[in-house]
Design brief:
Blueprint: H1 3-6, E1 10-14, H2 20-44, H3 49-61, H4 64-89, H5 97-114, H6 121-150, H7 154-174, E2 180-181, E3 187-188, E4 200-201, E5 204-205, H8 207-224, H9 226-236, H10 238-243, H11 248-275, H12 286-296, H13 301-325, H14 329-351, E6 352-356
Antiparallel strand pairs: 1-6, 2-3, 4-5
Helix pairs in contact: 2-14, 3-13, 4-8, 4-9, 4-11, 4-12, 4-13, 5-6, 5-7, 5-11, 5-12, 6-7, 6-11, 8-9, 8-13, 9-11, 12-13, 13-14
Length: 365
Amino acid sequence: MTKEQREPLIRLAKREDITGGKAWLIRVLSIVLALAAGALIILLLGHNPLEVYPSMVEGALGKPRVIRETVKRAIPLLGAALAIAPAFKMKFWNIGAEGQILAGAVAATYFGLFWADRLPQPALLLVMAVASIVVGGLWGLIPAVFKAKWGTNETLFTLMLNYIVLGYVKYLQAGPWGADLSANGYPKIPMFAANAMLPTVLGVHIGWIVVLVMTVLMFVYLKYCKGGYEIAVVGESVRTAQYAGMSVSRIVMRTMFLSGGLAGLVGFLQVSGASGSLTDNTAGGIGFTAITVAWLARLNPFVMVFIALLLGILEKGADTIQTVYTIPASAAEMLTGIILFFMLGCEFFIRYRLIFRGKGEKKHG
């Protein structure tokens, strides 16, 4: 077999010298291609893209009421993205934010249901928040302990834990806490009392202030604190961290408790701010979508704010065109998915280049 035959048809090479202008050109082209691909889907559905796209923007940003709804959708996305950021920076692939959100929501719901008549609102909300952080953190700590002690695969471990806590929520919903009946006759957990609900500021629950404070604190922690420095070192090289005298196991467990705790706090914001009760849809894919937010932002907390808002606009806009143009929910979600696909794809081509068999890296940069 010749050397050319042994060489793969396509190889990946990391870009080291791409200019800022070229990177932004790739991003702009990706958005144009995304809109073009989405327009094709819209045309196949029998609608005019020049009408549907403006309707999406109008439906997400056209009135104060819909702007508030868009912000409500962005709050948990930003919070969950911030939660997984330290784990991802450490290259601990926490795919379990969905379960950690639910774990925190369960803890908050317990106090919201059974302690509402025992504590004044400020104390009750504080207890609910602390409980959600502690339980979410402990749920995130489980895979960290197994990873640190026995080297288990954190991706699979955290993913499987999602389904365990989801099953527990369904059990609570159909059993011990499911006293009420939904419109379809299925058991559901009762709504929270008024003093277990978060107050609002500018028409939106104060979760938006909480996640903005989290954004600043996470930026400071990752960039200027000793813990953030240790996370970065472990992420770059475990051996380097060990050589420098760092306890890698302790850093992994501490970071995952932080990650799970912040995700648990998002669960509290969901049940006490957005919905007023716990359901099996409380997380609703937020933990998985947050991975996209964190990845597109390159783990920069401030960039995550804009990405989360963009996804909130896309989700609210997709809901609007379902109503206005009777576009099926699956098609509206596909439209959003196409846009995200191209956004993620552009980041890939910014970081890497394709080298075809027999071609030199220098000629095809």
